[in-house]
Amino acid sequence: METTATSSRKKRPSAPQTVAEFEQWLACKKTDANYEFVRGRIIKKPPVKQAELFIARFLMRAFAKTQLYQNGSEMLSEGDAYVDTFRKRIPDLAIFTDEQIWEAKIGKRFMPPLAIEILSDSESQNDVLEKVQDFSMPGFNW
Questions:
Q1: Which terminus, N or C, of the chain has the lesser number of Cβ atoms within 10 Å?
Q2: Mind listing the pLDDT tens digit for each residue in 70-116?
Q3: What is the pLDDT of residues 44-59, one digit of tens each?
Q4: What is the spatial distance between Cα 74 and Cα 93, in angstroms, rounded to a whole number?
């Protein structure tokens, strides 16, 4: 027989299973930290390290000389990259088209055409391979 104490016990909320649920969880967390979401796993993403700034600067300056840049695309640091409804990554750098930047303003989610990760010694080979797979996905828009 179930007692009142047992039956009135609230169910613990389940962990997020989709990007939408993850973003609701993140909104309640009220933090400036970056988190990626990969198939139910919440992964805290460290910011670009100072030792990596040279690489980031080199890539951003090289991009500023391209036709993409002249056409309104931007290379931005640590922007959201939506792989699909179960994965949201935050690449160190990514190129976003002018159209994507305007669409983001109205809430459209997408995968940038180019995502760049600056590898660090702390990442495992499996982590790197998983990121390469995710960033190699065809463009995703919702």
A1: N
A2: 999 999 999 999 999 999 999 999 999 999 999 999 999 999 999 99
A3: 998 888 889 999 999 9
A4: 10
Q: Cβ neighbours of residue 93 under 8 Å, at least 6 residues apart? A: 56, 59, 60, 75, 76, 77, 115, 116, 118
Of 92, 84, 76, nearest to 133 by C-alpha is 84
User: Looking up tokens 């056409």, which residue turns up?
Assistant: 71
Count of other CB atoms within 10 angstroms of residue 32:
5
| Separation of first and last alpha carbons in the chain | 48
Q: Is the pTM of this model over 0.70?
A: yes
Distances (CA, A) of 104 to 82, 99, 130, 141: 12, 9, 25, 11
Q: What is the mean pLDDT of the chain?
A: 87
Q: Which two tokens stand for residue 117?
A: 């990760």
